[in-house]
Amino acid sequence: MMSGATTATADTAPEKTPDTARPIPFDNSYARLPDAFFSPVDPTPVEAPRLIAFNRPLAEELGLAADALERHGAAYFSGNVPLPGSLPLAMAYAGHQFGQFVPQLGDGRAILVGEVVDRNGKRRDIQLKGAGQTPYSRRGDGRAALGPVLREYIVSEAMHALGIPTTRALAAVASGQPVYRERVLPGAVFTRVAASHVRVGTFQFFAARGQTDNVRLLADYVIGRHYPELKGEENAYLALLEAVAERQASLIAKWLGVGFIHGVMNTDNMTISGETIDFGPCAFMDRYDPRTVYSSIDHGARYAFGNQPMIGQWNIARLAECLLALLDEDQEKAVEAANEAVGRFMDRFQEHWKAVIRAKIGLGADEEESDQALIRDLLVTLYEQKADYTLAFRYLADAAESGAANAALGRLLEDPAALAPWLAAWRERLSRGTTPPQARAAAMRKVNPAFIPRNHKVEEALTEAVDHGDFSLFFALNDVLARPYEDQPAFAAYAEPPKPGEEITATFCGT
What we know:
Number of strands: 12
Shape: globular
Low-confidence stretches: 1-20
Number of helices: 17
Order of helices and strands: EEHHHEEEEEEHEEHHHEEHHHHHHHHHH
């Protein structure tokens, strides 16, 4: 069991709806948009659903009837029993996939069952992934394999614990029937919660068809749902473009801060809300190398760790193209305004990244001219020494507090003494600050996690679950990752980088 956060049960679908009350107080808005935005579709029942995991704290945050949902989770979260008040639909969208535009994608194996307004007054989507075919499935079966479902559960909840905007995991259900990929695998259904599932690709779907009225309608919907403060702006659509760029720049800087590699930053995988979404071939970097790629399908390293800011800007440019007709009646002025907004993306990112990396090495708000070189020299040394990214920064907090040589940090390097000149310069720089060493170290530990979803640990948990039906490592890993910034001596093995032979060099999309 996962510290009360998630529970495993073995209930199966009842023959009838188990509760007359509505366990989820749906308040749907996307379903009221015109038919062009989605296709109504019901989940396809599965053979023998079994609830694997249920995120009770999230259910309570959403204002759901947690007891009823946990008791009958297999029925509800498999799609076998319709949730009262739900309006199931598959969203339409397009997208650039590895730079190539596909005019129609859409939810091919995901079904938005509805929306709720949570206890904080925020509107959230509830979506089933792997719930069966939709009009956008093309030749796919609309199903999901157990491994990718568990991966998304682990990584999305870990991202939340790390403080990074992300979709959330509400439940995972084993379907009791196989899916056919490279081999026969057990199937599953994942329940995802998001601020919304509107993507850059949603705008592209209508812009590619010349449907300016629908682009405008979608933009107005997004402003009302995610950016209500923009309603009074003189040019609300330009302000929307700027606001989305700002959130994406901040998000990607946070990704880099924890070594996260999304893997497939296609425009259909970039939300307008600024949340991380679609955890397919994602991974967390072990040894620091900006060229790191884990996605098995990213043969050209388009979405490598260090390329993510550039791709973020590229995706914002695609959104800008969709909004051109709304920015100004004069096409030249519209293009000029869009280019200026896109051009500011890198400045935005650099500001966010500077704040992230300065916090990671304990620098305060007072900048000095030499700080940029100090940051650069650290990253160069970590790269040259093949140091573990996560632990190097975590151990720096110890070095900041003790002021002595850090043996643990030295063991991460090929040459244990290679960082000594940098450490001397760093300590000299810190000495000019006013923050006491203990306070500085404590602040550094709050932004430098001890625990991330190590790829080899994730794969170990998935293998046990998929091949042996043993979910104990899955639950244990989630428990540890729920407190990433705490020292957990009993679980030190989860913080360690992979040993030779344990490295995971490729992850897969899971579709």
